[in-house]
From TrEMBL:
Annotated keywords: ATP-binding, Coiled coil, Kinase, Mitochondrion, Nucleotide-binding, Pyrimidine biosynthesis, Transferase, Transit peptide
Protein name, entry field: UMP-CMP kinase 2, mitochondrial
Family listed: Belongs to the thymidylate kinase family.
Gene name of the encoded protein: Cmpk2
Lineage, broadest ranks: Eukaryota, Metazoa, Chordata, Craniata, Vertebrata
Subcellular location as annotated: Mitochondrion
Keyword Coiled coil: yes
Catalysed reactions, semicolon-separated: dCMP + ATP = dCDP + ADP; CMP + ATP = CDP + ADP
Residues of the Thymidylate kinase-like domain: 33-177
Length: 185
């Protein structure tokens, strides 16, 4: 429905439609690295890829990442749909790559879920859904990794690293900086 307003939506849906419905992992391990910007994901994923002679994939996948800024400016449900579609497109790439080599992934479903939960929850951290809530459950139809590692770094060090990069702040980063409650969630 939003293709008239957002022409890129049709291209994303076309890519999603080409993905097999149930992705099956190949024989090689699939390892996901999660974490906020400037926690070392790029450095670590590259080193692990090189060490394991693996394949490095990122979320959102390159075939749709050029439209990220378009969707980031859209209302939350549309933005969320873009990142969810990206996870399924990435799963298709993971399935194919994991038949040839170990797969290292820079962000996946966890980042999408964490951001969604943090933005949909109002109030304090105690107001988050309880640990057993279905919102935390892995989608049954999404290819599951073998291992997920969360990289963290001291908040001051993370900010220093971001400033050292000299890049423009993303909306998410501005929100994290301005809203400590959002960061905690």
């Amino acid at each position: 429905q939003c293709a008239e307003r957002i022409p890129e939506a049709e291209a994303v849906l076309d890519l999603l439609e080409k993905c097999p419905e149930h992705q099956k992992k190949g024989g090689f391990p699939v390892i996901v690295f999660e974490g906020l910007d400037a926690t070392g994901k790029t450095t670590v994923t590259q080193a692990v890829k090189d060490t394991l002679n693996g394949v490095l994939l990122r979320s959102p996948p390159p075939c749709i990442s050029q439209w990220r800024t378009v969707f980031d400016d859209e209302p939350t449900p549309i933005k969320r749909a873009f990142y969810a579609a990206g996870n399924y497109i990435l799963a298709s790439e993971i399935a194919k790559a994991s038949t040839q080599a170990p797969v290292i992934i820079d962000r996946y479903w966890h980042s999408t879920a964490a951001y969604t939960i943090a933005t949909e929850t109002s109030g304090k951290v105690q107001d988050l859904p309880p640990a057993q809530d279905e919102v935390y459950q892995w989608p049954e139809d999404l290819l599951k990794p073998d291992l997920v590692l969360l990289l963290t770094v001291d908040p001051e060090e993370r900010v220093r690293r971001l400033q050292h990069r000299g890049l423009e702040k993303t909306k998410e980063e501005a929100e994290l900086e301005a809203n400590s409650l959002f960061r905690q969630r």
